[in-house]
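User: I'm putting together notes for a lab meeting next week and I want to include a structural view of one of the chains we've been expressing. I don't have a solved structure, so I'd like a prediction I can at least talk through. The sequence is below, exactly as it appears in our construct file.
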Amino acid sequence: MVAIDPNLLYVLLIAISGTLICAAVHFIPVGGAPAAMAQATGIGTGTVELAAGSGLVGLITASYMYAYEPLASMALVMAAGAMGSMVMLASTMFAGSLIYAYGVAVPFASAQVKKDPITGQRQDIYISKGTQGQGIPTICFVSGVVGAGLGGAGGGLIYFSLMQIYTPLIAASAAAVAGVFTMGVFYVNSVIPSYGVGGTIEGIHDPKFKRVIGKDVLTSFVISLLCGVVAVFIAQGMIV
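Assistant: Thanks for the context. Below is the predicted structure for the 240-residue chain, given as structure tokens.
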């Protein structure tokens, strides 16, 4: 049986985790400035802020699992990251929904689909004139939670991989170095889809989703491979 170089394995794991983060962005209902004015569905901020924000919360829960459960497996660390990220983004969307409903007084409706794929409710008859929809319909909410889970799991996977690399070398500060590097990978893979999305995206049901996710994921995989190589080089520099 052929033995696999651990460094190569960690590079591949980091590439996979970065790809998960990039893919996750496409699931999250990003509304940007139009959503802030209730002229589009989704959360009123950009891809980088949403992906990094939810992902970093997932990183905190993943690192907590790793720190307090010394025998935690990779799957447990990823699950902890996913759960933290999902709770954070679900809370954000819920708070936003309260503002849309009771502050702006708009119905939740999408211009991308005639009926909500989950509830089957008509959407087109509730869309305000001159808008691309408003609020956070059910399909957007569910898609966002799924995307947050993917992003948080990806962040947990990066953290776990980096801890495996750095702990034998710098046990005292491995968590800090791994956390900072994970944040960097988050931001890199949050920026990549912002070019493909080009403004707003409602989630998995948005026609833009199928059009851009393939090339964005491929780009992210290549960039994340480079991040993995850099992580290994950093580890080599720690060897005295």
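A couple of points you could mention at the meeting. The radius of gyration is 19 Å. Residues 6-231 form one domain.

User: Perfect, that's what I needed.
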